[in-house]
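Figure 2 data, in text form.
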Amino acid sequence: MTAQLPALQVAIPLACAPLCVLFRVRFVPWLLFVVAAVGSLVCAALLAGRVASEGTVRYAMGDWRAPAGIEFVVSAFNTPVLLLVSLAATVTAGYARRSVAAEIEPRRRRLLYACLCLTLAGLLGLAVTGDVFNAFVFLEISSLATYTMIAMGQHRRALLAAFRYVVIGTVGAVFVLIGIGLAYAVTGTLNMADLAERLAEGHDNRALQAAVVFVFVGLAVKMAVFPLHAWLPGAYAEAPSVVSTFIAATGTKVAVYVFCRFAFTVFGAALVFGVLRIDRIGLALAALAMLVGSAAACFQQDLRYLLAWSSVAQIGYILAGVSLATASGVSAAYLHLINHAVTKAALFAAAGLLVMQLGSVRLSALAGLGRRMPWTFAAIVVAGLGLVGVPPTAGFVSKWALVTALVERGMWPVLVAMLASSLLALVYVGRIIEVVWFREPPASAELEPTQSPATPASMVAAIWFLVLLTVYFGIDPTFPGGLADAAASALLGSGGE
């Protein structure tokens, strides 16, 4: 069975998705999502161990060898993504049952869990596939399932957010598909390793250059890179809490990985960053994202919108590291990708708990509640300090790594934008602290009997697991740092794998 691990990584959640719809017993769909999440985590951990001891693992689907057949590849550059996505799914599964019961009407719960399994399968497939067209297929599997889940939000605004995401996401997907089609027209192959070999020369081919541009514009939409980020705030803020917790930790992060995979192991850094100078565009957009995202977050009156705009800025940090195209820069990007995923999942999970208890996460409704719900808001404060980059949180470690990489390249304007963004992050996190701990609650803010202060233990455990992981990675960053360094070395030293 160990030889089948790359296929099982995707097959387990994919098989659980239709079963979630077929079984009508109330707890079975949730249990199937737990099986999918835990199964994927076990596969990811075993594969990470194999990669560490044996090197790259290749799996030919149906025993059809590449480049004729579809190939799954597990290497140091994607094991961090596999571990991150499967761990996020496992924590979300523990959080999900009570959250879904509170927010989703019974007849839709099976569909939600099916979509969660499909999203998980699509993201894991994106991470392991060695075929560019299959990357597009898995991208659309995860996207279509995500559109559906966002539309299940409690308010009518969720339908508008889902529609906006459908339109913008579809445009991005079409761009990716056009780019893949142009690359196939130039080379006659869809296998990533074979593409890299055939593209080693001929960088002056205009069709190839157009392919690179189309693919990266499409992926920039999926990454929510400024100014192609318009879908993200509404999608994160209006989705059901369990959905925003999961996609905030994984969706854009996997898109960043796919960007790296195409840039370094398919098209090649010489073409992407040397000939087309996408690094300059990436650094400029990253600096703008840091400033605009953080500034917009400062003016939000809803906690979930505040966190969503913060994600726009944090994606800017990750893009800056990737755009440096150096070992230290890509390593810092991977490290911040991991740390931000854990931190932001904790914050959206805590926001979901507040929605369950209070019915609202508008900042005005949270006034003075720090004294009534100290553990919930303590978790929000600790994770919020991780967004700022205050030691000893994980955010400090990855931001410091990015600062070092920027200084090495002399990118002072981007460094100034990063520091300004961190100060703005201190402002919006400070707003939350000031409201919940130092303001007096309004006279009408007493909790209703149906909004009991008693909190579900499973949701609290998930939140604090993520918060403590954020602190642990800040105190001892050896594990995520080792994964990030190995990923950067594999990408930059791949030479097309």
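Caption note: Residues 277-489 form one domain.
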